[in-house]
Amino acid sequence: MTVAMSAAQFEAPGRAQAWRRHLVALAVVATAILAMFRADLAKLADLWWTSTTFGHCLFIGPVIAWLVWQRRAEVAQLAPTAWWPGLGLVAGGGFVWLVGDAASVDLFTQLGLIVMLQGAVVTLLGPMVARALLFPLLYAFFLVPFGESMEGPLQTVTARMVMPMLHAVGVPASIDGVLITIPNGYFEVAEACSGAKFEIAMIAFGTLVANVCFVSWRRRGVFMAVALVVPILANALRAFGTIYAAHLTSVAAATGYDHIVYGWIFFGLVMAAVLAIGWRWFDRDPLAPWVNVARLQAIPRARIAPWAAALLAIAVAGVFPLWGSVVVARADPLPDHITLPEVPGWTRAPLSTRAPWVPYYPGADRFLIGRYMDGSGDAVDLGIAVFGGQHDGKELVSFGTGVLRQNDVWVRVEDVPDIAGGSAMRITAPGNVERIVATWYRVGDVLTANPSVVKLQTLKTKLLGGPQRAVAVHVSAEVLPGHDARVAIARFLAALGPVDALADRAAGAAAPPAPTASPGRTFQPVGS
Length: 528
Hints:
Elements: H1 7-36, H2 38-50, H3 60-70, H4 72-76, H5 87-103, H6 106-125, H7 127-132, H8 134-139, H9 151-168, E1 174-176, E2 179-182, E3 185-188, H10 196-213, H11 217-248, H12 251-279, H13 306-328, E4 347-349, E5 366-373, E6 379-387, E7 411-419, E8 422-429, E9 433-443, E10 446-448, H14 451-464, E11 470-478, H15 485-496, H16 499-506
Antiparallel strand pairs: 1-2, 2-3, 4-5, 5-6, 6-11, 7-8, 8-9, 9-10, 9-11
Helix pairs in contact: 1-6, 1-13, 5-6, 5-13, 5-14, 6-13, 9-11, 10-11, 11-12
């Protein structure tokens, strides 16, 4: 008896076997990459779990799995192909990781890890399958925590939007930077209240809805605009409600209620509102296929055996941790001890007890802070932090270090005009005390006040060689009646001399100046 069988029936078992082989190879490569970069994976997981700003990242993995599951029927009709050009994506991700590791920028190390995993998918499954899974692959970028830079601008925007609302309901309020004062208390529009966490999560949510519910690119663009604007307006309304409730009741009652509403209810209501706004314009047919299989049947060139591709992908990814271990180990020797300079016309004095402030550099190799006074009664604090080299956990510029530490009693009021090339900030603490702080950074032979330049220069010296030393210099003065803090800082700097020369002496890169007499030397430096 003769039985007729179609070509598809012959192809199905072979395709299923190919899928098993390629998926196993992909699992091996992904496991190897995650093992090699396990420290970055652990950082990511810890940030997802502990940060309220990036808690939404915990849901990105399940969402990606759901997006792939949606496309499973169409993708199963494609033949997986190991494709060696995909190794370029693995190498590109590895280089991004190396850049982040050298410059101590977690965003880049984490981004590089995700790109390497995406490259493994392209290498082991081929370009046709990757095109079929393009949106899930791209959506994986939301696994990378990003967007903290929005906090400062959104603080200012929220504070400015709240003021006309308060005046409209008759609340006598005044604003100073990000501080809003009403008769029975004052409020800081802090980083946590800026709405940045809202905005970051809404970008991920809006992108998902735009893909799943819309086909028209114009409608997608309009929906994303709404998804970005509504959280900002809603957060300003929430901040207004908190302050207005405090005006009617008490600060303690209003802020306690605010945390409950903001954490558990408010975000859900805003998500529902954004969906409701876009609902009537959804134009994707729920029964329409997600992938046009007919357009993805071409057999790609540059094919390679799957296990050969797996070994090459692991080898390519493994080059970068080895390279990074050499780059990160670079450091310059430092002097055993450093001392604060003698400044003509200024004498040492004890640190302030009224408004004590110390910059925060837990990873510094050397750290000093001292106070100087002149004959007019002006007082200025000078802080110096010195690093022989930088690496993860030991960075000149990082979150929660520098002028303000995380959860500090001091809070930023506003950025003010530069002083002698140094970035300046006005800060305040309980007790109605204020300071102006000017900041400079010296990395190798470059003096800057820009943290981004610090990262770029650190990257340059790590990858290309050069002086590895890094120094932070802070000059601060209290804001007091009858004393101009900015003028005091400027006069102190004029007497001190070039900041880059001071930084080089502290790092042992220049000979110290000849000692001069210094009456009233009562200050004992903090640090070593």
